[in-house]
């Protein structure tokens, strides 16, 4: 209730309300100032409200007093029960745990005000799950209440927990939750065989390593605590069998270690022990965690294939043994009670069977072809034996036949040796050790002997020293050797074996003379090194060669420059064409000179191919306006030249016509007439070279040269 001191009760004061919940949760009587709640309140939703009130003059609407603030607090009542927010719970505890073993702690929450009364004070209790578990009423901790709870008896427990407020008093509100508790396994039980004797029946034809039976010991524990290991107790027949553990079923699998034979032994008895792999020391007092059972195995008789007397047969035969020679035999027997005859035959699926045959009844093996050890030194094939009474029962054995060698081939030097000897070698010096090989299969104790051939023993430069251990040494016999006189020496060596018949061969060794230093280290063995100065290193020789090459280059350049200067003196005009004049310096060797040029290019190819008379194309004679009559006294020479021309025209092997015309008679009709001195009637001094000036610019240099010689004549005295 709100009241102002200015309110005289005459209705001149009006009360107003504002703030949290004003008009929705709370309302005020404007005349009396009474505050009322217009709906129910929940402390857990909003524990208090802050409001503001004011007294206002009804007429002037002005506040009579300052606005005042006040708080309405909601008082709590017990209207909320305790709740397990994390429930339902799952917990576990090892079996055989002692009383009071911790299991789990639960917690309930009450939304009421814990500071006001007992509305939020919770007490825990067990409604279901006794007498196995207990709970602390204040903390909610669950513990075991009974000792030695066995998982194998009961594994799962469901416990119902209650939480009640008001301290558990009458009228308090309560909430419940469920706790599922599982007993975890511990190894508290040893394995036990369900029976003391196990009987097994095994066929004698069972293969080694195959499983012949299973036994099982029972362990009520779980997981690794139930893992069992089986072992055979040493005793009768235990060495023929072994036992392993199947990881999935924990069964003992009995396997065969050795083959069984009904005719040898029909029954076996041994003991098997089953024990836990993982033991718990807390339960050692219970007793040994293992159990023992007896296993009896009866061997069943089976119709078996024949059995060979040996697992492998090895035989020997000499090469070139006559066809049909017996080299050995195989034997197989039927060991069953009703013994049956055995038949033999070669397994035709393998190679090499055509070289041998086998007697089907006796099992003897004979050659079917001539054998060659150098082609095949060993044959490996299979022989099958079958029972006459049951041909489907067969057994197989391998036969190895080694072909023995007959001494057919002579020994030879094992490798082509590259032997060298120093020029400064001394007598008795070993320059090479040699060995020999023989294509024949040498028997034990085979020996090779080495010696010089008779033709090399007269004047030996080298000798052969047999070391008597299938090796020999090549030794020098001279004080020195000269590469200039003889670079290579051929040494014939005779090698002989010790087999019968004795075989020998002569092997020629090549010994190269090399230049060495004082210690005998080879410096060079090539032919070029013979002509090199002694004592010069490779670097010095290279330097000398470079100097020689540089000098040659300088000489060539000097000659080229001299020739270039000489050409410059003859060249006075760039327009002159001087190639023909300059090349007159080189004269040919005449008709017999066939090496200075390739005369094959001048031959007529059709004459060579058809082997007919040549058809040389003679050059047309150039006729110039100015002609001089030929000399009258050259008739003999002209006849000689014509005769030679005719002989060479009809001879396909003669030099070309053009080449012959160049070095013989030039012909008539030339303006300059013949340049040869053969038909010249006058001396050089009587010659008139003025006509050279009329021949044009090509002969201008000749005209100037001969004009100068004519003008300068030291024999003329004026």
UniProtKB/TrEMBL annotation:
Renumbered to this chain, the signal peptide range is none
Q: How does it sit in the membrane?
A: Single-pass type I membrane protein
Where is this gene product found? Answer: Cell membrane
Single GO cellular component term: catenin complex
Q: Transmembrane stretches, by residue range?
A: 530-561
Q: What is its main location?
A: membrane
Report the InterPro entries cross-referenced here: Cadherin, Cadherin-like_dom, Cadherin-like_sf, Cadherin_CS, Cadherin_Y-type_LIR, Catenin-bd_sf
Extract one GO BP annotation from the record. Answer: calcium-dependent cell-cell adhesion via plasma membrane cell adhesion molecules
Positions of the Cadherin domain: 4-84, 85-193, 194-308, 309-413, 413-531
GO MF terms held by the record: beta-catenin binding; cadherin binding; calcium ion binding
What CDD domains does this protein map onto?
Answer: Cadherin_repeat
Keywords from UniProt, A to Z, are: Calcium, Cell adhesion, Cell membrane, Cleavage on pair of basic residues, Glycoprotein, Membrane, Metal-binding, Phosphoprotein, Repeat, Signal, Transmembrane, Transmembrane helix
Function noted in UniProt? Cadherins are calcium-dependent cell adhesion proteins. They preferentially interact with themselves in a homophilic manner in connecting cells; cadherins may thus contribute to the sorting of heterogeneous cell types.
What protein name is recorded for this chain? Cadherin-12
Species name for this entry? Crypturellus undulatus
């Amino acid at each position: 209730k709100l009241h102002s001191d200015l309110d005289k009760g005459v209705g001149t004061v009006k009360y107003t309300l504002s703030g949290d919940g004003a008009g929705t949760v709370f309302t005020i009587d404007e005349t009396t100032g009474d505050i009322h709640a217009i709906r129910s309140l929940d402390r857990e939703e909003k524990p208090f409200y802050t409001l503001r009130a004011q007294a206002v003059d009804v007429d002037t609407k002005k506040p009579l007093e300052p606005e005042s603030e006040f708080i309405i607090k909601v008082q709590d009542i017990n209207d909320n029960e305790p709740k397990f927010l994390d429930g339902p719970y799952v917990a576990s505890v090892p079996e055989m745990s002692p009383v009071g073993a911790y299991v789990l702690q639960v917690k309930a929450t009450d939304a009421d005000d814990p500071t006001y009364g007992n509305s939020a004070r919770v007490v825990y209790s067990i409604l279901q799950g006794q007498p196995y578990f207990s709970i602390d009423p204040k903390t909610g901790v669950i513990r075991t209440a009974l000792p030695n709870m066995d998982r194998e008896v009961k594994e799962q427990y469901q416990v119902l927990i209650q939480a009640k407020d008001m301290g558990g008093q009458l009228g308090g509100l309560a909430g419940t939750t469920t706790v599922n508790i599982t007993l975890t396994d511990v190894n508290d039980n040893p394995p036990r065989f369900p029976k003391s004797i196990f009987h097994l029946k095994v066929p004698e034809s069972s293969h080694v390593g195959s499983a012949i039976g299973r036994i099982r010991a029972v362990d009520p524990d779980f997981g690794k605590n139930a893992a069992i290991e089986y072992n055979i107790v040493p005793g009768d027949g235990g060495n023929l069998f072994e036992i392993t553990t199947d990881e999935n079923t924990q069964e003992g699998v009995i396997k065969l270690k050795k083959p069984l034979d009904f005719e040898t032994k029909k029954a076996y008895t041994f003991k098997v022990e089953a024990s836990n792999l993982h033991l718990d020391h807390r339960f050692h007092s219970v007793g040994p965690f293992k159990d023992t059972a007896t296993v009896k195995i009866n061997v069943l008789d089976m119709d078996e294939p024949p059995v060979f007397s040996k697992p492998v047969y090895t035989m020997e035969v000499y090469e070139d043994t006559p066809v049909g020679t017996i080299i050995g035999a195989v034997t197989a027997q039927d060991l069953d009670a009703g013994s049956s005859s055995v038949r033999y035959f070669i397994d035709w699926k393998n190679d090499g069977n055509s070289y041998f045959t086998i007697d089907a009844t006796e099992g003897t093996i004979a050659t079917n072809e001539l054998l060659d050890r150098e082609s095949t030194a060993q044959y490996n094939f299979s022989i099958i034996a079958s029972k006459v009474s049951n041909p489907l029962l067969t057994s197989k054995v391998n036969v190895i036949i080694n072909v023995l060698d007959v001494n057919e081939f002579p020994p030879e030097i094992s490798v082509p040796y590259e032997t060298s000897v120093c020029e400064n070698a001394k007598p008795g010096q070993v320059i090479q050790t040699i060995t020999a090989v023989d294509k024949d299969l040498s028997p034990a104790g085979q020996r090779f002997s080495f010696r010089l051939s008779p033709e090399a023993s007269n004047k030996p430069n080298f000798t052969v020293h047999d070391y008597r251990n299938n090796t020999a040494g090549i030794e020098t016999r001279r004080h020195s050797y000269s590469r200039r006189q003889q670079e290579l020496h051929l040494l014939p060596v005779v090698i002989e074996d010790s087999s019968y018949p004795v075989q020998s061969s002569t092997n020629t060794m090549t010994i190269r003379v090399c230049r060495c230093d004082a210690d005998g280290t080879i410096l060079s063995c090539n032919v070029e090194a013979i002509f090199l100065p002694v004592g010069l290193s490779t670097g010095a020789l290279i330097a000398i060669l470079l100097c020689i090459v540089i000098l040659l280059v300088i000489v060539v350049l000097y000659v080229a420059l001299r020739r270039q200067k000489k050409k410059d003196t003859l060249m006075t005009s760039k327009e002159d064409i001087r190639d023909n004049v300059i090349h007159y310096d080189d004269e040919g060797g005449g008709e017999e000179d066939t090496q200075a040029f390739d005369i094959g290019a001048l031959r007529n190819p059709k004459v060579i191919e058809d082997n007919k008379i040549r058809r040389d194309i003679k050059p047309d004679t150039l006729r110039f306006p100015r002609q001089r009559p030929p000399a009258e006294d050259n008739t003999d020479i002209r006849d000689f030249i014509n005769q030679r021309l005719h002989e060479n025209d009809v001879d396909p092997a003669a030099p070309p016509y053009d080449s012959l015309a160049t070095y013989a008679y030039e012909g008539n009709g030339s303006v300059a007439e013949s340049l040869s001195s053969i038909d010249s009637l006058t001396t050089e001094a009587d010659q008139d070279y003025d006509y050279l000036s009329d021949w044009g610019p090509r002969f201008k240099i000749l005209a100037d040269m001969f004009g100068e010689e004519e003008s300068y004549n030291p024999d003329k005295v004026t």
